[in-house]
């Protein structure tokens, strides 16, 4: 049996997602662990290209070729679902937990909408411009009703859309896909997300909605199946600040009202501070620090977390200048990645020990606080700091030059045997 995880609804262990492109293998997600408790908001934060959206898409099975989940477990806790598939999938079910990677893609698809739903960052491109907003939401409702009534479905929620309705719909298909009941529910959902005059607005097309209204409509569509887990991928990025605040308030209210769990993907630390109970900071395909909001904001260990926080304006502080993180996010191409700490060439505290890839260790703070950084185990020692320019192309040692995967162990060993001359006396702070 799995260990007692009474409050957890979702647990991701060692998730790896690769993209097999013409340029080579891209390690977009590289061994991510996440645990989310029912009713909580878990934030994944990081720069563009850090792998946060791919992580979210992997969890809800939206990775398409040339992408592929190559390793790890995605465990979802739902007693009803587990009981429904146990006989056909004995190896994937453990009590109320189901390893979603151990079931067929059709079973995973059956969870979309009713158990997992997603809000995308650009509502304009997510709605069909030729169909009214109300009809598109009603279609989402209808899909859930029909799936629930299907005897082969793992869902058994709908009491209004019966097996008889399904049979009649199959034998005598009407011109319109949606039923009056689904349209009525769509109007209720528009009202729930704060759209004024929902009956009239349901008949309008996406171009007649403002950006904020359309984002609300997308949230309504995502709620059509009353999901357990709502994944919100940069839900406010395309909106101005006032509307952002309204949408975040709305998500907060809906979570309280419906008891949903939210996985929030964002690059915005202000959004994280406002919404999240727990946070995972992502860098180069890895969660480099995770913990409660307090752990990450007030007691962080990883210099990247410190750098992210330092690059946010402090409106109450003195007139300190913002501290940008120098350098760029590294390439995630497998043959260009190093086995050292991926943040080392941008880190003001890089030491010799950082030339080996750090494992994750517990950090001070709550039980949930952990970081992938040598500073969890040792104090920064200026005498062992890497010199300025260590990672510059001219000074880059053989082990750090772009090498193929098979050559990496050799070059790393060689690097350790022949460290660069100036490994002490750096001016790192
Ligand atoms: S392991 Fe070293 S280089 Fe990496 S973040 Fe920690 S201190 Fe910086």
Automatic annotation (TrEMBL):
Q: Tell me the ranges covered by the ABC transporter domain, including all copies.
A: 10-309
PROSITE patterns the record matches: ABC_TRANSPORTER_1 (PS00211), ABC_TRANSPORTER_2 (PS50893)
Quick one: where's region Disordered? 388-429
Protein's GO biological process:
peptide transport
In which residue ranges is the amino acid composition biased (Basic and acidic residues)? 393-406, 414-429
InterPro entries this protein is in? AAA+_ATPase (IPR003593), ABC_Ni/Peptide_Import (IPR050388), ABC_transporter-like_ATP-bd (IPR003439), ABC_transporter-like_CS (IPR017871), Oligopep_ABC_C (IPR013563), P-loop_NTPase (IPR027417)
**What superkingdom does the record give?**
Archaea
Pfam family membership, one: ABC_tran
Q: Give UniProt keywords alphabetically.
A: ATP-binding, Cell membrane, Ion transport, Membrane, Nucleotide-binding, Translocase, Transport
Its membrane topology is listed as:
Peripheral membrane protein
Note the subunit structure.
The complex is composed of two ATP-binding proteins (NikD and NikE), two transmembrane proteins (NikB and NikC) and a solute-binding protein (NikA).
- Which protein is depicted? Nickel import system ATP-binding protein NikD
| Species this protein is from | Natronolimnohabitans innermongolicus JCM 12255
Q: Upper lineage ranks?
A: Archaea, Methanobacteriati, Methanobacteriota, Stenosarchaea group, Halobacteria
